[in-house]
Amino acid sequence: MVPLRVVVCFALLAAAAATDVKQCPGMDIPDLSENVQLSPCTKPPCRLKKGTNQSITIKFTPGKDLDEVKNGVTADIGNGLVVPFIGVDGYSICDKVFTENGDKASCPLKSGTTYLYKDSFPIYAIYPSIKVKVHWELKDNSGDITCFEVPARIV
């Protein structure tokens, strides 16, 4: 039997690793914040340091079989201006998907199976030092699978 202290310790570590994100308008995804980890960021606004790579893990369970899944990653920089994150927006995630126990998976993804999408993306030195709202979605041809937004600051 596992001592209660060990269970509580692992629960606290898991909670500390999650990033506090908001659902995209019109989405209803239970426990979304518990399933997104931006590293290193647990509490917005996330600091996106120029010249580094930002890591992300998204845990998701598709409601239907999916042949292809792509990222939609943009930054709302204010005044109605939305720009894509270079090098990650519009790309397939199929080679960066794992099963819940860490085994490599690939598309097609099966309905009802929980997957982990793990990736990193560059914060280029050419990006301006500003506040942004990062909009991140995983989508197929018929729409969003999961979607979140998080305030950030490029520094």
TrEMBL record:
Single GO cellular component term: extracellular region
Swiss-Prot/TrEMBL GO biological process terms: sterol transport
Pfam family, one: E1_DerP2_DerF2
SMART domains registered for this protein in UniProt: ML
Residue span(s) of domain MD-2-related lipid-recognition: 21-152
Main location: secreted
Taxonomic superkingdom: Eukaryota
UniProt GO molecular function: sterol binding
Keyword annotations: Secreted, Signal
Signal peptide residues on this chain, from the entry's feature table: 1-18
UniProt subcellular location: Secreted
Similarity section: Belongs to the NPC2 family.
UniProt-listed PANTHER family: NIEMANN PICK TYPE C2 PROTEIN NPC2-RELATED, NPC INTRACELLULAR CHOLESTEROL TRANSPORTER 2
This protein's name: NPC intracellular cholesterol transporter 2
Originating organism: Spodoptera frugiperda
